[in-house]
Amino acid sequence: MSVPSDASQAKVLLVDDEPANRLALRGGLEGLDLTSVEAQFGEEALAQRVGVSFAYVSKIESGRLDFGEYPSEGVIRKLAVELDADEDELPLLAQKIPEAIRRRPFERPDAFRQIARLDDQRLDRLLAVIESDVRSSARSTRSGVKA
């Protein structure tokens, strides 16, 4: 096993529901100057990575937060990073509007007034044009050509 040159700063997360397995894994890391963090199962590991309690992650996952309690945007963003999810989509699913999206109508109220008046069919056409433009720009950027 190769260890990065800055191994003193490297962390390893050991996740297994069997203590004997975690012990064996920990033994395999001895002498590598790594910091290991252990968890019994995935939700516990996720909670450690996000910096909240396992009970809180479990409540979020099961939809059993107390009435009126919602995870903060910061917690949602950390969850998105750890779960390799879209950092803008996950807050929206939790009915939290990301700051960049919340701020934009105030920066361009004229545009948002027009968008608000569109019926669904026209809005879908507008989105198709925008998505096509974004894809075209991405292709141009990858090929080194400015759009």
What does this protein look like?
This protein has 147 residues and is mainly alpha-helical. The protein has a domain at 108-147. The chain is 59% helix and 7% strand. Strand 1, helix 1 (19-29) and strand 2 (35-39) form a beta-alpha-beta unit. The longest helix has 24 residues, at 120-143.
* Element-by-element helix/strand order: EHEHHHHHHH
Poorly predicted segments: none
Q: Can you list the strand order of the major beta sheet?
A: 1-2
- By oligomeric state, this entry counts as single chain
Q: What share of the residues does DSSP label as strand, in percent?
A: 5-15%
User: Please, what is the average pLDDT?
Assistant: 82
Helix content: 55-70%
Biggest β-sheet: count, sense, barrel? 2 strands, parallel
**Rg (CA only):** 22 Å
Q: How many beta-strand segments?
A: 2
Query: Count of helices?
Result: 8
Principal-axis shape: elongated
Question: Distance N terminus to C terminus?
Answer: 45 Å
The assigned structural class equals: mainly alpha
Gist?
By secondary structure, the chain is mainly alpha-helical. It contains 8 helices and 2 strands; from the N terminus they run E-H-E-H-H-H-H-H-H-H.
Keywords:
147 residues, mainly alpha, two-stranded parallel sheet, 8 helices
Write the layout of secondary structure elements.
Layout: E1 11-15, H1 19-29, E2 35-39, H2 42-50, H3 54-62, H4 73-82, H5 89-93, H6 99-107, H7 109-117, H8 120-143
Parallel strand pairs: 1-2
